[in-house]
Amino acid sequence: MSAEAKAAPIPTSRADHVIFIIVTLLYWSTLYVYVPILPPFMKSSGYADVLIGIVLGSYGFTQMLIRFPLGLASDKLHKRKPFLMLGMISGALSCVLFMIPGSWLWPLAGRMMSGVCASAWVAFTVLYAAYFAAGEATKAMSNISFMTVSGQLIGMTLSGWLAGAYDWNAAFIAGIGIGAAGLLLTFAVKEPREGVAREPISLTHLREVVRTPSLQRVSTLSILAHCVLFITMFGFTPLKATSLGASSSQLTLIVIAFMVPHAIASLLSGRLIAPKFGNRAVISAGFALSGIFTVAIAYSPSLGWLAVTQALNGFAQGLHLPLLLGLAIQPFASSKRATAMGFYQAIYSIGMFAGPFLAGFINEAYGRDYGFWLGGLFALAALVCMFVWRRRDHARQTA
């Protein structure tokens, strides 16, 4: 291995790593500290499911519009810290907007602002990767993926506890405080004055990247996967829990039931399960199981059964999401991977938008349980796509 491959672009101490880890945990916590209580909060304010679906979907809609441009701007400036700060500021501001009473437009503005916060994530990954040598890229991404799930779990666990111990606004106030603390700590994050360069997102490469069949397929599957995710735990599952009589503290347990198996599956999928059974088999199993357990949510007669569906659904969705992320950039040379990832992240935001948006209309027209059936149909659509592509590939190989 060359000296360049052994050396990290940014020399760091253990303290630098600790600071970055804390900032990342605060970032995801401020973004997710109200996610489980947002649908029940809006329902308690008298909003219909269709409006709740529009608000939930606006998170993905914002990312569809600005994720790619923010990545371009970050690469052009070679600066990542300003975008870390943008994430913290927009995360805290989203919580402020949720607290303004009087109109559903304020929660809509808050959720769109949280989409701005989420769009800043690419800057975190690029900066953290620069703390490691080129040969340790997999280790860096594994670490930051675990930080992501940990920060989400911290925020979502706090959410129900705060709402139960105090009131709905307590979670939003906590989000403001967490965002403000993260912003202050961001000043201590290590980044050289000249910034961090990488192979940039390229509009020149974009046309070639978008035309790559494997990326088109993986992006389609990821859209469908995020439709399911944002209909279930990040969408209407908390409303199902409250309809079964869940208190705020019990809502926290439902969140944990989903997130812990989800994190475990995310860690095991690429390291142990996929190498043994193959990517296609594991992704197919993930979609099949998530479809079954999403529909099962509709038929949960009690909170105990709902928790079981969440544990199984969390594990199932954790099987395919990390694999799709890796497959998105796998066929590309390093010079095109940033462009492929930028496109992939922007395109799967369609699922974050379409899933809850459509489910909100379905819920309003036919009842909330039918929204979970819609989630199951999205998972089935992914399986159908995989079957059709496999048949097509086989026919091409035997022709």
TrEMBL record:
Top-level taxon of origin: Bacteria
GO cellular component assignments: plasma membrane
Gene3D superfamilies listed in its UniProt record: MFS general substrate transporter like domains
Protein keywords: Cell membrane, Membrane, Transmembrane, Transmembrane helix, Transport
Topology relative to the membrane: Multi-pass membrane protein
SUPFAM superfamilies, A to Z: MFS general substrate transporter
Major facilitator superfamily (MFS) profile domain sequence ranges: 16-394
Any one GO molecular-function label of the UniProt entry: transmembrane transporter activity
Subcellular location: Cell membrane
Membrane-traversing stretches: 18-38, 50-70, 82-106, 112-132, 144-164, 170-189, 221-239, 251-269, 281-299, 305-329, 341-358, 370-389
Pfam families linked: MFS_1
Main localization (coarse): membrane
PANTHER family on file: CHLORAMPHENICOL EFFLUX PUMP RV0191, PURINE EFFLUX PUMP PBUE
Listed name of the protein: MFS transporter
Organism: Paenibacillus montanisoli
